[in-house]
Design brief:
Immunoglobulin-like, homotetramer, 2 domains, C8orf32 fold, 17 strands
Chain lengths: 290, 290, 290, 290
C-alpha cells in the first residue's frame, strides 16, 4: 500500500457573468484507491455540485461563476492498494464473455479511431499469444515508436496523427495504445491522474494520462509514455479517451493559468512510508464492476 | 399512440469457428415505447445473451457461432406513445443544471468532432434564441446543406467529412447535426431505428438513424435527413454516435447479406389503426432518466 | 506605377556542417514588375546559386552553409506597373481554351484539396455569372467566413481545415480561396510577397500570401485575407500553394530567428511618389505566358 | 530494347452540351522511349488539341464534345530502350546540386504529404547508406507494409491514409513511396503507364502507376506495388502525384465505361522479339533534363 497526497490549484479570470465550469480533479474512490481525506476550497465561495458517475466512478464537479477571479484548491490523501497478478496468469476474454459494462471500450472514440487500425494491428499483434503479454507488447510498441516531445501535439491530435507524426505527450501515447488495443478487441480506456515520481527535468508537474486494459476480470494499468512509476499514480477520471476526462471544461470567456500540482508520499497510519516503485507484476486498481 | 410491427432478417456465412457477434436490433423499452410482443429466432439454434444497458436502454445481443450459415429473425410489436410539447415551451438547460447522465453527450465522439466546429456553430447558431427552435434550426441547416445520396459515404465518414462533402446518408446527417449541437452545448445523441413510411423509391427498407437533443427534461426527436415521419420511428439503440449503435458487429471471417426489413402499422387492442403522421409539436420518446 | 523598396534579413544558427538552404525571397521579374536594383549579402560569405524557374519566374536561391551563424540580407527596389482592367470585361476561359501552362493550377494540391470541395463550390458559386465577378465573390465569401487570427493555424493546415475551423492567417485564406476556385474550374495559384501598408497593429511586418486567378488572358490579384492594399504587393514566389513558395527551406539542425522585413514607397526616377491605393479595377501583374 | 504496342478504348455518354475533356493517354516521347507509330480515333469526329508539356513531356489531349456518345481509340507502338546502371553506382544528390527542374518533386503534394512523414522516414530510413539502395529499401518497405486489394481506396486516398490502412492499389503504393522519399529529400514523382505482363488473375488490364526517384543524373523506376515487370512499362504521364496524371478528366454530366486496354510485345524491325523481363540493374527511361 502506498499513501499519496496531492494538491491541485487552478486559477481563472472570468470575463462574462455566469460561466459554467466542469472539473474532474477529484480522486476516484475504487476498491483499491481509498480516500483518507480530501478538501476543496473555492474562492470566492460558490455553490457547487459534485456527482460520481456510477459507471466510471469519475467525480464531476460543476459550478457557475461570475466575472472576476476564480481559484480552486483541491487536496486529497489516498491509500492505493494495488492488486498485483502474475502477468502470465492474466488472460484475454472473448467478446462474448466480456462484462456488458466493458463493451463501450471496444468501439472507436474521438481520439482513438480503432476502426482505421484493424489491419495494422492485426498484422503487428494478431499472431501474438493472447493475454496480458499482448497488451504489454502493444504498450512497448507505442513507447518505442513515439517520441515524447512537449508541445508536439494539440487538443485535436488523435491516435492516427500520433501514428503518423511519431511524437506526442502522455495523452497521445495513451490514445494510440487504446486505439491499437481496441483494434484487436482488447477493451481499453483512458485514465487521468497525478503521478508520483515524475522526472523534474520534464518541467513543472502536470496531469498524467495512462491506459487501462480489461483482462481477466480486471482493468490493468499500462503507461505507454513510460515516464512514470505506475505504482505512483493516483487515479482521477476514467473514460473512452481524453474527451471524457478533461480536468477542466469552461463555458464562456475565461483566461486560465497553468495548474499548480504537487504530490508526495506519506507514512501510513502505522507510520510506515512506502515509496512507489517499479514492480514486475500486472498492476490493477479497478475490478470488473467498473 | 401508434402500434408498429417490424421484422429484421439477417443472414451470414461464417468461415471460422467460434465467431462472436454483437447485435443491436431489439426494440428499446422506454416509458413511451412499450413492447407488446417480440420474438427472436436463431438458426441454427444457439445460446445467446441479451443485456439491457442501464443508461441507454439499448439491448445488446451476443452470441458465438461456428462455421456455416447463420440466420437471425427478429420481430417486435411496439406501442409508441409520443410525448408532444409545444416547441416554444421547450427550453435549453444550462450545463450546470443538466442531469449528470446527459453530460457524456456534450463531448466529441468518433464521428461527431464537435470540438472542431465551435467557431462555425457559434457563428451560425450562437445568436439564436435558446430553446427547441435552435435545435430545429440546426436540423434544418443540416438538411438544406447536405444532399441525400446513397453510397456517398463509408463507415469512416465523420461529421467533418459531411460538412465538406455536403452529401451523405441518414447516418451522416445525424452525425453532423449532433456535432453542431454539441458545439453550442446542446447534448445530442444518435438513435437507430426502423422508420414507417420510408419512400419506396429509395430502395429496400433500411435501418434509419436520427438524432435526439436533450432540452427541458427530455430527449426530443429530430430527423435531419428529413426522409421520414418521426412518429413512425421505432427506436432500437441509442449512443454517442454510430460507433455505439452498430446493428451487427462481427468478429471473424464472415460474409453477410443485406438485411431484410419490414415494418407496418397495426390496429391497437381496441381495433383502432393510427397511422404515423407529421405533427407540428416537439416529439419525445424518452425522459430525463435515460 | 509604384516604386517600392523592401528588405529582408534572415538569421540562423547552424548546428551541423554542410546544411543546405533553399530561399525564395527575391523579387520576381515580370512584365509588370521591374527590378530597378537589388542586393544580396550573405554572412559569412558563401557561394550560392540563383535560379529563375522558367514557368513561374520565382527565383530560387540555394546555398550550403557550415556550422555557426548565417545571416542573409536582401534588398530590392522594384517598379510595379499594374495592369488594370474593368472587372466586367474580364471573362472566364473554358478548360478547352486555357493556355497549357495554366492547367496545373486546376488540379488539387497539398493544401488546396479542390477535389473535396466540388459539391460545395458548385452549390455556392456554380450558378453565378462567369467572369472576374465570380472569383471576386469567392474571395469575399472566404473573407467573410474566415476570421483572421494569429497562430490559429500551423504549417500543416489545409483548405479543408480552414473551412472547418473558420480561422487562419493570410496563407490559410489563400489556400481556401484557391481550392474553391479550382473546384469550379477557375485556375488559381498562390503568391508570396511583401505588402506595403500592412496594419502595424498586426505586429511586425511579415510575409504576405495572396491569390491569383487566371481569367481572360492574365493572372488577376485577389487578397482574400483582406488586410492589405493589392497595389502595394511586391511579388516574390508563385506556385500551386505554400508548398511551392516557402521563403526558406532548411535541411539540417538549424535554429532560426523571426525575419526582419521592411518596405517603403519611393519616388520614381522623375521624383514623383505614388503611394499604393485601393483601386476598383481588376489588377494583374502577370500575363498569359506565366 | 523492347517493342510494345498498346491500345486504349474509352467510351462515354454525355448528357450536357459542350463538355470539356482532358486526356493523358498518349505515350510519352523520351530519350529512352521512342514512338514508332501511333493513332487516335475520336468518334464522332471532333477537333482536338494535343499539347506536350515541356517539363514532364506528358502529352495532354483536350477536346469539347456535345451530348451523345463519345469514343476514343488510341494505339501506339513504342520502342523502350532502358538505361541500366549498376545500383551501387547510382548516388544520391545533395539538394544544393539537384537540377532546378527537379526541386518541385521534393515538396509535398495533394496525395503525398511528405511534410507529415519526416520523423517516421528519418527513423526508418535516415541511417541507411545514401544511394539507389536507400530508395530501393523504401520501395520494399512500402511493398511489405501495404497489401494490394482492389477497391480498398478511393480517389481521395492519400499517402497518410495508406500508411494507416495498409491496403491499396498501385496508385496508393506509389503515393506512399513518393511521400517517404521526399521526406528524406529524395526527389520522387508519379508515373502512369500500361504494364506488359500484368497478372490476368487481377482482372482486366488497367492503367498502372509507379514511381521514379531522381538519383545521380537520372530518374530511376520503382514499382512499389510489385505486381509488374518494370521493363514492360510504357510511360504515359508524369507528375507530382495522381492529381497531375489523370488519364481522363471530365467537365460536365458524363457517364463513363471501364477503359479497355491491351498491350503486347512485338518483334522489332529486325524481326527479333524481346520480352520484358526482370533485371537486377537500376532502370531508367528518363534523363536529367526531364
Amino acid at each position: 500500500m502506498v499513501r499519496l497526497e496531492y494538491s491541485i490549484e487552478l486559477a481563472y479570470q472570468i470575463a462574462d457573468s455566469r460561466c459554467d465550469f466542469i472539473f474532474m480533479i477529484h480522486a476516484a474512490q475504487t476498491a483499491q484507491q481509498r480516500i483518507v481525506s480530501e478538501s476543496l476550497e473555492i474562492l470566492p465561495a460558490l455553490e457547487s455540485d459534485l456527482h460520481t458517475d456510477p459507471a466510471s466512478r469519475s467525480r464531476i464537479l460543476r459550478l457557475t461563476a461570475n466575472a472576476g477571479p476564480l481559484t480552486l484548491r483541491y487536496r486529497a490523501t489516498v491509500d492505493v492498494q494495488h492488486h498485483v497478478d502474475p502477468p502470465e496468469q492474466v488472460p484475454e476474454i472473448a467478446v462474448r464473455a466480456l462484462p456488458a459494462a466493458v463493451l463501450p471500450f471496444l468501439v472507436p472514440s474521438r481520439y482513438c479511431q480503432s476502426d482505421r487500425l484493424q489491419r495494422l494491428a492485426l498484422k503487428e499483434f494478431g499472431a501474438l499469444r493472447q493475454g496480458y503479454g499482448r497488451a504489454q507488447t502493444i504498450c512497448e510498441w507505442v513507447n518505442q515508436r513515439v517520441t515524447f516531445q512537449s508541445n508536439s501535439s494539440t487538443a485535436e491530435t488523435s491516435a492516427l496523427d500520433t501514428l503518423i507524426d511519431e511524437a506526442g505527450v502522455c495523452r497521445d501515447f495513451a490514445h494510440l495504445m487504446i486505439a491499437l488495443c481496441r483494434a484487436v478487441n482488447l477493451p481499453a480506456r483512458f485514465v487521468t491522474g497525478i503521478d508520483y515520481g515524475a522526472d523534474p527535468a520534464l518541467g513543472p508537474l502536470d496531469f498524467h494520462a495512462y491506459v487501462e486494459v480489461f483482462l481477466g476480470r480486471r482493468w490493468y494499468l499500462f503507461d505507454p509514455s513510460g515516464n512514470a512509476i505506475p505504482m505512483g499514480f493516483v487515479r482521477m477520471a476514467t473514460g473512452r479517451d481524453a474527451a471524457d476526462c478533461a480536468f477542466a471544461t469552461m463555458f464562456g470567456s475565461i483566461d486560465s493559468w497553468q495548474p499548480v500540482i504537487h504530490i508526495e508520499a506519506l507514512p501510513d497510519d502505522s507510520g510506515r512510508l512506502t515509496l512507489p516503485s517499479h514492480v514486475a507484476g500486472a498492476l490493477s486498481t479497478d475490478a470488473e464492476a467498473g
